[in-house]
């Protein structure tokens, strides 16, 4: 939706594209798409200089507006820029924003203050580079990573913003009119002015806006539709008055006034005259006038701004560093207290704080950040989840601790492709494998009858019993199929296929050129099925319908009345007259709950409806009633009278229709299935076994959502479903909540309206009950409600949430969740672009969580604790050294050794823990219960942290006291002795921690050891700084040095190896049973 530079396009023929005829106008092209407030882009990527009329509006409250058409003198309309912007920063806020996000972490801020303190001479302990180089490296890695992600995000947004649309312009007039062709997405909120469809209407696909699978019928403004050509829109003087921008996607109030007619024409505008951004034109080509753009779009107002997400793991690590800081302060105070606060003790406290600063490891942040990059790379490279993209590399550990998964339905769990699965006639049912029998019944009916005769099979003399039974069944099947072929709102449309043009195809009823259009994909599936068994809908207009039989005979029917489907009535009806016989028939189909009281008594309807519903099929009950001419005339008179009523019109109309809806003949049940995405059922079962509760949030109808929940096994066969009835006030909500409280192990189905009432009055009680349910289905949800549910789950449970969706209506939910996953669907990439992770199919979510999420969390937990252990060891040694030497604030090791210790000597082995795994990926997928262990956060807890602290104190003390004890006579070599033991201890501890060896781990261990040995030889002046003779290089080669270092290292590590063996032997972890 980014308005871009203009390029002239060729004029197109026909009344819709006659824009160039003698008007000085042209069809130019613009490049729109998406939300936000970045600069408009042309196809060259430069800011557009020609869109003055689309400059960003000033601030202030939204207010009603008037859009002037054909008034060159009134060009003061200003529109927000119409572009997508999923970036977290812009050019000016990038560096401040990144630095702020880094220094709000406690330990980053701590190290900044620490480095700054070295500019004060009294506090300086070593060279400045020992403090500034590590901090600069950490910040550089972070800034580079964020910059790469922002550039990738900008490139993705620019690709979408540069989509091209045709527009109708005249010199001296702002470019308000857009052409949008079939299957194109609407780039801005518009008023519908013209269509190329003969019936004067068009269908919209809105599933990316509201989640509903039904197509919506839209009507153009009547006076502009009557204009001869689209170019005439530039010649009329008119204006559109519209309400202020708001979030309501289901309502609109406005007027269209044409001033140059006599008298002026004024038409009211409603939701039927709108084309909201994000919807897709399903039929024909339309012309619209831009009403709202940018941040004023309905779709944008229903989404939230992208935010920087901070993972729970990072917050936990931040909390541990605060504890370490507390320990640092305590140790420093103890050291000064043991000196009896002598002299300038406050400076001594600061020097000890600096001396023991290694207690908080600066390398922790950079190790974790680089680990995240590795996890992201591994996810992208996984061949079993191809096409997966990591858009936010800062939160991969979140994937390993998800407690609630909130998923969209349409396009995420389902393909939005309806398939006819079952026809039930009471005594016999036909499935997909027996549809050829239905076809043979239809064929037998129409091959027995001549074109001039009735469709009922003629009586034959002396038939056998078999023939009579066969004919009776054929007649029943025929009546059912004919009812399905007639009772609908489907229109066949013919398009050119390159061989046959449109007019010829429509005249010949060409099968290859025909497509069906309807507001509901269910109805299209039913009509496609009747075509497959031999009865084809070939033509339809406002007053007639044509069916073609297997013998190519055309059956003509006059449409007398249509009673459309509504959410209240849950049924639709049609009255038709057969032109060949004059018979009038009233056909009706609807939900079993309402049709049960309309059809004649039977003993199978309720049972079979229940059976089909349990299979996840969407069931419709089809019935008919024959009407005499007098009976219909009487009904029509009463119906017309009711429609003319001023008071209680809808009630009176419903009463008249209900007078016909009695004792109808039950013909059949139909079962239609919304095709699920591949492997949805096993994926949901895996997530359930992993301890993840799945909630389905959809904008679709209650019945549709319930059927999909059953079909996908979101609700298991042995679970009851509690459908929360519609409530409008506090007392009704109270009663319904009490009724629901009495249910146990029961899935909840609730509509958005009832949810809003419950959250208004009983938010805590409702969330408490809902969180206890094994599954929750929220239908008719707005995008804002989806985000609200995510937020409430986070606040009430404190657990991590993951939101999965594929449409623009899921963006708010995805951005609000702790971990957002976008599915790249057929209907655009809005959700995918806004998500933290993008997948191509829902089934990939299982592996993303069970394997990559689990590994990322466990690896980061081990890595963080080991880095803390590494720093605590050397800090403990410093504490022992200072204690022995009269609490002097003198560093044990030079700055070079401190940096080398946490980089070249131990970095590679420690960082290789990001390649460790406790079980193979196949085992993690086979036993999702392993994931459940992570939900308690045991890999990184206060208990494990305390264990590593005790290990660090034990090993640091052992190495330092061992060095002082065994090398008392060679005290000048204390640095070389203790440092060597420390390096060997760290390398052995890494080997102790690893559970599955990778060849890179072995390389890292050997490489680090080789680096240290080389530095002993070539950099001995740093390691043996106390020696004045410089003979360390000879000393470290002696047998005495080697065996004493070996003893110290053995004493520090051997007890831990023994404890690990005993723990594995007597209290093995759950995963070890699967690896043995």
Map the helices and strands.
Blueprint: E1 7-8, E2 25-30, E3 65-69, H1 94-103, H2 106-117, H3 129-161, E4 165-170, E5 177-180, E6 189-195, E7 202-205, H4 207-210, E8 216-218, H5 222-225, E9 238-242, E10 254-258, E11 265-269, E12 274-275, E13 280-281, E14 286-292, H6 298-301, H7 312-338, H8 345-355, H9 363-381, E15 389-390, E16 402-407, E17 414-424, E18 429-430, H10 435-448, H11 465-486, E19 491-494, H12 502-508, E20 514-517, H13 521-532, E21 536-540, E22 544-548, E23 554-563, E24 571-578, E25 584-590, H14 592-595, H15 605-614, E26 618-627, H16 629-643, H17 649-660, E27 665-676, H18 680-689, E28 693-697, H19 702-711, E29 720-723, H20 730-741, E30 746-751, H21 752-761, H22 763-772, E31 775-779, H23 783-797, E32 800-805, H24 811-816, E33 819-823, H25 830-834, E34 837-839, H26 844-884, H27 895-902, H28 907-911, H29 921-926, H30 929-934, H31 942-966, H32 974-993, H33 999-1018, H34 1020-1023, H35 1032-1035, H36 1039-1066, H37 1070-1075
Parallel strand pairs: 16-28, 16-32, 28-31, 29-30, 30-31, 32-33, 33-34
Antiparallel strand pairs: 1-2, 2-4, 3-9, 4-5, 5-14, 6-12, 6-14, 7-8, 7-13, 9-10, 10-11, 15-34, 17-18, 17-27, 19-20, 21-22, 22-23, 23-24, 24-25, 25-26, 26-27
Helix pairs in contact: 1-3, 3-9, 7-8, 7-26, 9-26, 10-11, 11-13, 16-17, 18-26, 21-22, 22-23, 26-31, 26-32, 31-32, 31-36, 32-33, 32-36
